[in-house]
Write a structure and sequence with these properties.
Largest sheet: none
Shape: globular
Strand content: under 5%
Length: 91
């Protein structure tokens, strides 16, 4: 049996003590505030599982939201603002 290394996203989520839905909830709040349309919650759960298991790379538009959620775990963005930059949000 070989030891698997945790994806940094997975490790950080666990360090916060968040369940997958808690991270996705934060991502959804940030995306809504930034005007980004996301897939349905159940699809995000599947993607998060694939990303955390090293089966798929995290797309940049989601990586920005995830990073912001980890850096500012209790912050809510003002309406129409973007976590990093307009370009990173696909605008």
């Amino acid at each position: 049996m070989t030891a698997t290394t945790l994806h940094p996203c997975h490790r950080r989520r666990l360090a916060f003590g968040w369940q997958p839905l808690q991270l996705i909830g934060r991502i959804e709040v940030l995306a809504h505030a930034a005007g980004i349309t996301l897939p349905k919650t159940y699809e995000l759960l599947r993607y998060l599982f694939l990303w955390e298991q090293h089966r798929e790379p995290i797309p940049e538009r989601y990586a920005v939201l995830i990073e912001y959620a980890f850096r500012h775990p209790y912050a809510l963005l003002g309406e129409g603002t973007c976590p990093q930059s307009e370009a990173a949000c696909g605008r």
